[in-house]
């Protein structure tokens, strides 16, 4: 029994190891991992639509990470295939911190949902106590704050448990700076009226800092004002300008960050393959031959974009979510994506050829009545018996 239990534990550990190997190198479980592999970074987490992603994030004196008592950068842009990270650095009150999965030194929980241990880290803060004047947000606007009052901002505790206190609308609030997806800001921010500043995003848009920066507080004593802090290689008020091949930990889909610079992978590097050779760019975002495109799809070297066939999406056509993914009415049939991107249910019997299932009264394909092999055999047998009896009766009548 002990041997069986040990084998089960070993198998689980092996499965976890395989999952870890599938993760990009910049996913992390501790500050020490990030410091070793990407010097000048720390392991910061963000809840991305239910999936907690922990990623090595810049953490220097000039470009601090967002956590604890310090506002700053959050995990950065990845790619359409892996999933964009669209994070704000938000001041969250102490009572709402338990609702946030993004914290100081929190462990990596991969997109597959594997949990891991948390690690503590020292917060790089400013002086322990300071006095300031803060603008209290009294209007329901997300871009401006009306009124001002004297407030006192203080820090208490140390390390990962340190709390920062500030006065908001005349009330003293203690909390921490946390990386949140833009969709979570209104529910968890201590001051929700600051969740959609026009300095970080266009009105009615959820695209923060063009996916190339973090909407954060430049001065934590003024938590009513936020703006974009850009990742390496980008500049502009909303980080919209691509200025170099410099990188922090990654270069999206087409490149690897090596010694702080983007190095393009095959298919993005401008080398010729199978008669195709496009021109690369410094951020490795343009395909230059078909090696860049997944699932047999091809590269348009004039536009630098992969041409995705039906059922495939994403920068490299690696995403396979389509109209069949959420379809539940095929019963025992098989769903297939059609040329126009829509889908249809097919009966599982495809010999000599597949045929569409019967259309029900509500004009949707329904395979719940598709015949199985055994059913077809039974139906064929019954038909043969009926035909034999019919022929026998006819012959008998003729004989009479």
TrEMBL record:
<feature type="region of interest" description="Disordered">
    <location>
        <begin position="120"/>
        <end position="158"/>
    </location>
</feature>
<feature type="disulfide bond">
    <location>
        <begin position="308"/>
        <end position="317"/>
    </location>
</feature>
<feature type="disulfide bond">
    <location>
        <begin position="230"/>
        <end position="239"/>
    </location>
</feature>
<feature type="domain" description="EGF-like">
    <location>
        <begin position="285"/>
        <end position="318"/>
    </location>
</feature>
<dbReference type="InterPro" id="IPR000742">
    <property type="entry name" value="EGF"/>
</dbReference>
<keyword id="KW-1015">Disulfide bond</keyword>
<feature type="signal peptide">
    <location>
        <begin position="1"/>
        <end position="20"/>
    </location>
</feature>
<feature type="domain" description="EGF-like">
    <location>
        <begin position="196"/>
        <end position="240"/>
    </location>
</feature>
<keyword id="KW-0245">EGF-like domain</keyword>
<protein>
    <recommendedName>
        <fullName>EGF-like domain-containing protein</fullName>
    </recommendedName>
</protein>
<keyword id="KW-0732">Signal</keyword>
């Amino acid at each position: 029994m002990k041997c069986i239990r040990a084998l089960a534990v070993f198998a689980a550990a092996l499965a976890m190891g395989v999952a870890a190997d599938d993760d990009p190198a910049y996913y992390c479980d501790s500050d020490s991992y990030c410091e070793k592999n990407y010097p000048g970074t720390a392991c910061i987490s963000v809840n991305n639509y239910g999936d907690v992603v922990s990623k090595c994030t810049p953490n220097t004196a000039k470009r601090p990470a967002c956590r604890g008592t310090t506002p700053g950068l959050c995990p950065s842009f990845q790619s359409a295939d892996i999933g964009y990270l669209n994070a704000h650095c938000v001041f969250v009150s102490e009572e709402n911190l338990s609702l946030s999965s993004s914290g100081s030194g929190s462990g990596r929980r991969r997109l597959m949902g594997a949990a891991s241990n948390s690690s503590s880290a020292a917060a790089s803060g400013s002086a322990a106590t300071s006095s300031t004047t803060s603008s209290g947000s009294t209007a329901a606007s997300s871009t401006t704050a009306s009124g001002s009052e004297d407030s006192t901002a203080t820090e208490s505790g140390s390390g990962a448990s340190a709390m920062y206190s500030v006065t908001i609308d005349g009330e003293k609030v203690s909390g921490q700076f946390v990386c949140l997806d833009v969709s979570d800001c209104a529910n968890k921010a201590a001051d929700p009226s600051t969740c959609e500043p026009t300095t970080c995003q266009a009105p009615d848009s959820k695209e923060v800092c063009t996916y190339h920066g973090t909407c954060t507080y430049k001065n934590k004593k003024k938590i009513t004002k936020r703006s974009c802090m850009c990742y390496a290689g980008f500049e502009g008020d909303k980080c919209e300008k691509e200025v170099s091949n410099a990188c922090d930990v990654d270069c999206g889909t087409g490149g690897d960050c090596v010694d702080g610079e983007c190095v393009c992978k095959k298919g993005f590097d401008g080398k010729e393959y199978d008669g195709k050779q496009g021109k690369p760019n410094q951020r490795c975002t343009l395909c230059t031959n078909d090696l860049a495109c997944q699932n047999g799809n091809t590269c348009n070297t004039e536009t630098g974009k992969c041409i995705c066939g039906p059922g495939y999406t994403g920068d490299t056509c690696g995403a396979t979510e389509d109209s069949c993914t959420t379809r539940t009415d095929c019963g025992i049939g098989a769903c297939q994506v059609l040329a126009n991107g829509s889908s249809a249910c097919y009966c599982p019997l495809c010999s000599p050829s597949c045929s569409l299932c019967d259309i029900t009264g509500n004009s949707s394909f329904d395979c719940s009545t598709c015949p199985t092999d055994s059913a077809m055999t039974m139906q064929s047998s019954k038909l043969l018996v009926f035909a034999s009896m019919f022929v026998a009766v006819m012959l008998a009548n003729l004989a009479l």
